[in-house]
Amino acid sequence: MSRAAMQRGATVCLGEGGMVVGKLACSRSGARESSSFVYSQQWLQSSERFSISPDLLLTETHQYHKAASANDSVFHFAIADTAPDGWGCRVIARDHAKRRNVHKAQGVEQAFAPLTPWDYLVGVDDFSRVGALRLRDATGNYLRTIESGDRATPPLLELGDMLGASHAVERGKETEADLRYLRGRGTSLGGLRPKCSVIDDDGQLAIGKFPSVKDQRSVTKGEVLALRLAVVAGIEAAQARIVYAENSPVAVVRRFDRTLGGARIPYLSAASLLQANRDDERAYSEMAERIIATCADPKHDLAELWRRIVFNLLITNVDDHLHNHGFLHVGHGQWRLAPAFDLNPFPDKDQELKTWLTEETGPVSSIKEVVRVAGQFWLEREQALEILAQVCRGVENWRVVALTLAVGMEPHDLDDVAPAFEHAQMKLAKSMLRHG
């Protein structure tokens, strides 16, 4: 089929057992791209069935999707969640360009076709694809598997090699060997910063987040500090610690979409749960409404979400967009908040979160306003103030936690991040607690 019109597809499976859920197809006609999905009869008749994505009803018909804007995906939301993040896309694009140039240099006339959304979707290694959805081709192979038969996800011992390859990509000096090393080992959880899937020392799946060559402060230590502070503040958060590779601090963050036995847990980003386009301004109050409608224990999750709003404001985590919140399936179409992840203090930014508080109030910028709307999260004022006190106590100890071995900050690191923790909103929170 010509480049102008083509269609590719795969069987969508679920979990380690690979239960067939349906068929996915991606079509391209000229510049127009779209996808379609149809559930299998096996899934529709299963007692375990549930709608794998909010925009995929449990019907026998083909369901179509196209990108709402240039920044959105051509795939239904849950499937789009499994696509590579910004860094993963960058590696795939550079790898494609490198191999295309090699073929040209060898005199191969047929140039590589331009990359499509399908190429990026299947460019993630099956072993580390987020959640429980998996893609299988017509021959029965899961997409993507490492062609050479090598280990799909490297162990922690290879962090130094991965760090070197990532820095080479950042500098635009990567070799074919660097790209071959990183190929398929990206993640769906994160953004443009360099990272790679790894196997931790105890055999569990994790993400290794590397310092960037452009960093002016220790961003990796900052993220580990924030995640560990979150736990102190009473938040369920991804496990994280600093590990050194080539004398560089790498944040090793445990994946929460796998059980200790390695089973896959279905995952949805908050953006998918809300069916939100990337250009939309969305609010925590809207997330609260979806929690009430879809979560197994909405009272718990609403309180947890409100606690996270307070925490994000007090540590200046202003990159709290909807793809940095997630949900895990607990059975029969019900969900729960996933552990907090991608928490980062931004000492050079104002205390104004990216996600709005409510549709009426706009962005989160005042702890007073957060407390005022606590009722929308099923909290009485006394309960809200108790949570606020717990979070304040946790965040106040940031210097102590920062100097622990798991974080490993130096005195200059403390100076770099201090404005993220010591600011007017923290003072206001303490004043509110003193005066009730």
Q: Can you tell me about this structure?
A:
There is one protein chain. The protein has 436 residues and is of the alpha+beta class. It contains 15 helices and 15 strands. The strands form four sheets. A six-stranded antiparallel β-sheet has the order 4-3-2-1-5-6. The chain has a four-stranded antiparallel β-sheet with strand order 7-8-10-9. Helix 10 packs across helix 12. The N and C termini lie far apart (69 Å).
Short synopsis of the structure:
This protein is of the alpha+beta class and about 425 residues long.
What would you call the shape? globular
Query: Helix count, per DSSP?
Result: 15
Query: Oligomeric form of this entry?
Result: single chain
The tally of beta strands, per DSSP, is: 15
The helicity comes to 25-40%
Order of strands, main sheet, comes to: 4-3-2-1-5-6
- Structural class based on helices, strands and sheet pairing: alpha+beta
Rounded average pLDDT: 91
Order of helices and strands: EEEHEHHHEEHHEEHEEEHHHEEEEHHHHH
Distance between the termini: 69 Å
Task: List the topology elements.
Layout: E1 5-14, E2 19-29, E3 32-39, H1 41-44, E4 63-65, H2 77-80, H3 86-105, H4 117-121, E5 133-136, E6 142-143, H5 159-171, H6 176-182, E7 195-199, E8 205-209, H7 219-232, E9 240-245, E10 248-254, E11 267-269, H8 270-273, H9 284-294, H10 298-314, E12 326-331, E13 334-337, E14 356-358, E15 362-363, H11 367-372, H12 381-396, H13 398-402, H14 411-421, H15 424-435
Antiparallel strand pairs: 1-2, 1-5, 2-3, 3-4, 5-6, 7-8, 8-10, 9-10, 11-12, 12-13, 14-15
Helix pairs in contact: 3-6, 5-6, 7-12, 9-10, 10-12, 12-15
